[in-house]
Design brief:
Layout lengths: L2 H23 L2 H12 L2 E2 H7 L5 H13 L3 E6 L5 E6 L1 H4 L2 H27 L1
Length: 123
């Protein structure tokens, strides 16, 4: 094995944790949740209404993953009845610029992506 290949393999094995993180914070529902929470803190049902396609189970799992990674925090609100509110953390706020860039890229290039998908599906 060449020195370059060995370095590349070592680099990939060292950087593997970032793959898990990116899978968890850039998945299907996380982007939608982050988009909502970047605007304002929300209760669970507010998030469900804002993202109607998400199931309760998927939203719960998404919020837990984001909380575990320090991106979202859960705060008990002293109201009657007691409620839970989710908000973006300072660490989570640092994700907004790169996420906005990715979303803008998708918006701009979606027509080309759709053409590529159609060409692939037609094969």
């Amino acid at each position: 094995m060449s020195d370059t290949a060995a370095f590349h393999d070592d680099e990939l094995s060292i950087s593997a944790p970032h793959r898990e993180l990116l899978d968890q914070v850039l998945d299907k529902w996380s982007l939608s949740v982050l988009g909502e929470l970047c605007e304002r803190p929300c209760r669970f049902n507010d998030l469900r209404r804002a993202i109607p396609a998400v199931t309760q189970k998927s939203l719960t799992a998404t919020l837990r993953r984001l909380e575990r990674n320090g991106i979202v925090e859960r705060q008990v609100v002293n109201t009657r009845p007691v409620a839970v509110e989710y908000r973006i953390t300072p660490l989570g706020k640092t994700m907004r610029p790169p996420v906005d860039v990715l979303l803008e890229w998708a918006r701009v290039y979606m027509p080309q992506i759709e053409k590529a998908r159609e060409a692939y599906d037609a094969m």
